[in-house]
Write a structure and sequence with these properties.
Elements lengths: L8 H4 L37 H15 L6 E11 L2 E12 L53 H9 L8 H9 L9 H10 L3 E4 L2 E4 L1 H9 L2 H4 L2 H15 L4 H18 L47
Antiparallel strand pairs: 1-2, 3-4
Helix pairs in contact: 4-8
Length: 308
Amino acid sequence: MRQADPGLDALNDHLEPHRRSRAWNDAKVSAHHGIIPTAAAKNLERLSGKHRAVYTLIRARYLAQFLPNHEYDRTQADFDCNGEALRAVGKQIIEPGWKRALPEALAPAKGREAPAPQTLPTLSQGAECAVAEVKFKDLWTQPPKPYTEGDLIKAMKNVAKLVEDPLLKQKLKDTTGIGTEATRASIIQGLLDRGYLVKNGKALAATPAAFSLIDAVPRAIADPGTTAIWEQALDMVQSGEMSLEEFVTKQAAWMSKQVARCAGLSLTISGPASPAGRGATPWKNKRKPAKRKPATSARRAAKPASKP
């Protein structure tokens, strides 16, 4: 890789080729596998745009597995100022570790930057410190920031936080949450295409149609704990404790029961006429008919069907 990219020379002295991180675990490999760079030396100048960006991300995460842990010292100092509790926090990086390979990937999104860490001076218990300056700020309570697509993907992965049942919560922690790394982005895109989500810049927002649908469907369908129950059943299928036919039969019976409970209900879903300014109805993904090539000879022309 150094032959292909001389820019990696700065990492060479910090790499530990014999290091094995949690990423190297054959027991976790099933239907999905990882992508790593190969030893074939190529000229990176031939890569441009998205191709080079994808390669750079894969390369960075691969090299991070062979770098030491990221280490830092965190100091917290508590003060009593005329009966008011004051606190100062300092942070000093000791070993950059794996962050040497991921400086850009770990950069926070615009508008979400954390304040730069400060280094505290040497302090001792009982020491007196002078208050150099006092500033008063008039601030307004800010609402939670809207989800971006990246935030929503993380929430789908960590959906166990929204489940109260301890067994189901643990099951979702052991699996991938809602969807997989390969399907979460397409799930979100499907919600955008159907008008259940709208984009405002990078922010995502649920539409009235989404709220109406969640309020209307049975609780079990909207509960992420149901995903954990299905995962448990699929584990039984994988281990041979349950056949696939039995699983499908139980799912069909359960779904029929949910549909029967909703029979006769009147549902009104309100929402925008089309998502993101598109002209087509959100839930109708119309396919354009393929253009047929005209017949070039009498032999290729279709024959009329014979009458019975």
